[in-house]
Amino acid sequence: MDQLNLFRHPKPRQDAWRGFFRAARVNLSKLRRDQYFVARAAYLVHLLTASGIVPAALAMHEMLQPDCDPRIVFACLLVTTLIDSIDGPLARRFEVKRNAPSLDGRVIDDLLDYLTFAFIPLMLIWRMDWMPGRLGFTVMIAMGASLLGFAHREAKSESRGVFRGFPSYWNLFAIYAGVFSTQVSPWLTAITLWGLSVLTVSPVWVLYPNLAPKRFKGAIFIGGILWTLCLIAMLLMDYPRSPLWLVYGSLAYPLYYVIVSVVHVRSMN
Asked: Which secondary structure element, helix H or strand E, spans residue 162, and what is its range?
């Protein structure tokens, strides 16, 4: 009887091994499906980034019209900004460098950023004669500065959460340029543009909003939403003759952004 039981013991062991290998096959199959999904999602993030070319092209098309409406151009640029604000976190979430290595999302992002943050809004300032006299061509100074800024090897430091120089937010500057050139003086637009052009290639550091420290992230996020609503209100309220109280009030957020940038840079040092 003992000899008979001796031969029966291996069967549970064999069943255990079969269960182990069966579970391993299931887990391997699930892993492959997960990798397939993540890879496809990573490429979709690249596609999302590249989709910014659509509103960019529509903005250029509007600028070529004889009765160009700057509000339509700004609406298109707002869409590109929204795309730019969400594709970065998605790219980090799906690790596009590892899961979609055949495309360089940084190159796509930089090309579209230069086009929509710098070239198109600066061309709009020139197109709408928001610079004094015949000085519209000097927007090319800002274009060149932004080009050098984008090409700088330390233009963006994700590890420290900062940009080097003025981060070429010319799409936002152009909204104020229309108001100030129309209601105050085009010289205010020109002097500010030239000054920011110098800061674009200067060794100064400003906060990267998407990578803001936790102590600032909430205020940066909420403030950014409120600021965006103020800019939209400016565009809807008889732009470029928007109420100056709204225009000056909206400048509180850029001022806060500068202060937070200074505090953040000092904390790094």
From this structure: strand 162-164
Tally Cβ neighbours within 10 Å of residue 199: 14
- 68-90 tens-digit pLDDT: 999 999 999 999 988 988 877 77
Question: Which DSSP symbol is given to 70?
Answer: H
- DSSP 8-state secondary structure symbol assigned to residue 61: H
Handedness of CA 82, 105, 148, 136 (dihedral sign): negative
CB burial class (10 A; 0-12, 13-18, 19+) of residue 152?
middle
Say what the pTM is.
0.82
**pLDDT tens by residue, 148-168:** 998 988 888 777 888 899 999
Q: What are the Cα distances from residue 114, in Å, to 125, 211, 262? A: 16, 20, 25
Give exposure, 94-105, as e/b (b: 16+ Cβ within 10 Å): bebeebbeebeb
Question: How does DSSP assign 88-139, residue by residue?
Answer: HHHHHHTTHHHHSTTS-HHHHHHHHHIIIIIIHHHHHHHHTT-SSTTGGGGH
Answer for the pair 228, 172: CB distance below 8 angstroms, yes or no: no
Of 112 and 26, more confident: 112
CA angle 167, 173, 84 (to 5 degrees): 50
* Spatial CA neighbour of 168 closest among 186, 185, 153, 155: 155
